[in-house]
Design goal:
Elements (H helix, E strand, L loop, with lengths): L1 H15 L7 H27 L22 E2 L2 E2 L11 H5 L4 E9 L5 E8 L4 H12 L3 E2 L1 E3 L2 E3 L1 E9 L12 E4 L6
Antiparallel strand pairs: 1-6, 2-5, 3-4, 3-8, 6-7, 8-9
Helix pairs in contact: 1-2
């Protein structure tokens, strides 16, 4: 490199070192500037060639299948525990009638019960009617679907059983089923 710079310096100083320059020192200064400029251009070109150019990062798109929850559903729940024991019909107790009444109904968006129907009888109209009357008084926390309260169909079994001595204290324990599968 120094050799090339020296050759450029000698050639340029010979060109500028003539009788037309009054001060010969100016010829040397101009020749040095030309030689220095040429060496700077050489180093800049060398730097550009050797410089490690950063490559753009490789971005690979990967499709990931994520399940999307479209419907959030919270089923209805009783506001308080319910028991139809106090509604055991008097004549059904006297006659010793027992059985299970299965009911279907709708829990409305305001939590009330509507459309109570007997789906499976206990073989006693008294027990079935008492079950319908008892369940009709129940109140629920309404079902929520997608941040909205909604009507939901439900089923329940009301067990009518007499305790020892016909006292009726163990009567009518309820088994509540949730809403049908959706």
């Amino acid at each position: 490199m120094i050799v090339i710079e020296f050759i450029i310096f000698v050639v340029s100083s010979g060109v500028f070192y003539r009788q037309s320059f009054h001060h010969r020192i100016w010829a040397v200064i101009i020749a040095g500037a030309v030689a220095t400029g040429s060496s700077l251009l050489f180093f800049y070109d060398l730097y550009e060639k050797l410089e490690a150019k950063p490559q753009a990062p490789v971005v690979k798109l990967v499709k990931v299948n994520v399940p999307v929850v479209q419907h959030v559903f919270r089923p209805p729940a009783l506001s308080k525990p319910e028991n139809c024991q106090d509604d055991y019909p008097f004549f059904a107790r006297v006659l010793g009638q027992e059985g299970t009444t299965e009911l279907a109904y709708t829990v409305l968006a305001d939590g009330t019960v509507s459309g109570v129907k007997v789906t499976k009888s206990s073989d006693s109209d008294r027990l079935d009617d008492a079950a319908v009357e008892c369940v009709s008084k129940w109140h629920y926390r309404p079902a929520i679907k997608d941040d909205q309260t909604v009507d939901v169909p439900m089923t329940v079994k009301v067990d009518w059983k007499l305790g020892d001595g016909d006292s009726g204290e163990d009567a009518a324990t309820d088994k509540k089923d949730g809403p049908p599968a959706q």
